[in-house]
């Protein structure tokens, strides 16, 4: 994904406000040897702060069926916090054995992400396809219809009211007694760790993916700079109605589609934990690395909220410039805190400190600045 340092003038990560073929305000050429590059003359406000906002919002909870979860979010380098989330470890009514969790990564505003965090589940349940005696294909169809339904509803609201021009990705899971339903629309991501390995993860919806690019081109658009019409960095999202204005095309055939991909996976006693996170996390750390990190932390830390904040701090240290939100959901088979693992970590830290002290002493003996 396109990146720039926080100190430089840059464009919002999800949506650019111009494209090379239609930029306004003129341009100038700057010669660098034999190369010539185009530079914009008008200055846009940077979407990044001079210093990151490090305050974290955390929560935790559980269900009678043995699920435990925690979430954490942080604004980071961004000028606005556009992420939202939903954590419902135990639904009501006939679905008390079901849980629902979701992260929404907003862009170009907060309206769509916040609206979806409050209302998406209601639209899914209103389809009538999610029932205690579940039929996986019916549940998946209900989820799909719920996404299309809330997007159509928001489109009407956006035309009637003064909404911002925002959009949002969505990564969610619905958990029943027998299945985990993985739901993805955009480039937030969910993974399942089992027996210490990543056994499933959702695929990001990027404009340059062959299937996504074909739909974009069929809708009269193009993929430039790995973005839809050189502007939007995801090919599926809720909202983003500027990309959904071809009235005669179905919702799923617009430049940007609100249709989620939904997969079901049968639950296993060996399932350890799920991770849902926005791309501010995934841009900085890979699936296997994050799985290993969380698994190691579970053995030395008994506060799941602390582990979530440690992931965010790690991603910030590794260079993430985006808002960050993460939900970790633990099953009964998740690694447990142990005195042995804690002792090993203490010994490793002591060994590292000793080695660092030796290196500093050696450098100073050579009159070198450590």
Automatic annotation (TrEMBL):
Record-linked InterPro entries: PP2C, PP2C_BS, PP2C_C, PPM-type-like_dom_sf, PPM-type_phosphatase-like_dom
Main location: cytoplasm
Cofactors that this protein relies on: Mg(2+); Mn(2+)
PANTHER family in the record: PROTEIN PHOSPHATASE
Compartment(s): Cytoplasm, Cytosol; Membrane
GO cellular component: cytosol; membrane
Family under the similarity heading: Belongs to the PP2C family.
Name of the protein this chain belongs to: protein-serine/threonine phosphatase
Every PPM-type phosphatase domain range: 68-331
Keyword match Hydrolase: yes
UniProt-listed Pfam families: PP2C, PP2C_C
Reaction catalyzed: O-phospho-L-threonyl-[protein] + H2O = L-threonyl-[protein] + phosphate
Bilayer disposition of the protein: Lipid-anchor
PROSITE patterns: PPM_1, PPM_2
Upper taxonomic lineage: Eukaryota, Metazoa, Chordata, Craniata, Vertebrata
Ranges where the record places region Disordered: 1-37
UniProtKB keywords: Cytoplasm, Hydrolase, Lipoprotein, Magnesium, Manganese, Membrane, Metal-binding, Myristate, Phosphoprotein, Protein phosphatase
Annotated organism of origin: Collichthys lucidus (Big head croaker)
UniProt-listed Enzyme Commission number(s): 3.1.3.16
GO molecular function: magnesium ion binding; manganese ion binding; protein serine/threonine phosphatase activity
């Amino acid at each position: 994904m396109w990146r720039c340092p926080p100190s430089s003038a840059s464009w919002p990560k999800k949506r650019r406000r111009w494209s090379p073929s239609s930029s306004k305000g003129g341009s100038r050429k700057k010669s660098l040897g034999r190369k010539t590059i185009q530079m914009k003359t008008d200055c846009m406000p940077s979407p990044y702060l001079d210093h990151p906002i490090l305050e974290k919002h955390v929560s935790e909870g559980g269900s009678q069926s043995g699920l435990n979860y925690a979430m954490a979010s942080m604004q980071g380098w961004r000028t606005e916090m556009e992420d939202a989330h939903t954590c419902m470890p135990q639904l009501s009514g006939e679905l008390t054995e079901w849980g629902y969790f979701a992260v929404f990564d907003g862009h170009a505003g907060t309206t769509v992400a916040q609206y979806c965090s409050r209302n998406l589940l209601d639209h899914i349940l209103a389809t009538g396809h999610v029932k205690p005696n579940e039929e996986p294909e019916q549940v998946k169809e209900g989820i799909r219809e719920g996404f299309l339904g809330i997007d159509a509803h928001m489109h009407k609201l956006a035309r009637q009211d003064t909404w911002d021009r925002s959009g949002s990705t969505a990564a969610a899971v619905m958990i029943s007694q027998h299945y985990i339903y993985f739901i993805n629309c955009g480039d937030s991501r969910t993974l399942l760790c089992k027996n210490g390995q990543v056994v499933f993860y959702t695929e990001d919806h990027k404009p340059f993916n062959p299937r996504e690019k074909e739909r974009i081109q069929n809708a009269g658009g193009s993929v430039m700079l790995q973005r839809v019409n050189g502007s939007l960095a995801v090919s599926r999202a809720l909202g983003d109605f500027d990309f959904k204005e071809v009235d005669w095309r179905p919702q799923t055939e617009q430049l940007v589609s609100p249709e989620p991909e939904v997969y079901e996976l049968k639950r296993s006693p060996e399932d350890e934990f799920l991770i849902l996170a926005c791309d501010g996390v995934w841009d900085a750390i890979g699936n296997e690395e994050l799985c290993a990190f969380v698994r190691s932390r579970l053995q030395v830390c008994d506060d799941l909220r602390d582990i979530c904040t440690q992931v965010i701090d790690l991603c910030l240290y590794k260079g993430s410039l985006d808002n960050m939100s993460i939900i970790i959901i633990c099953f009964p088979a998740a690694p447990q805190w142990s005195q042995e693992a804690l002792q090993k970590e203490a010994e490793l830290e002591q060994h590292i400190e000793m080695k660092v002290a030796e290196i500093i002493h050696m450098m100073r003996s050579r009159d070198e600045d450590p």
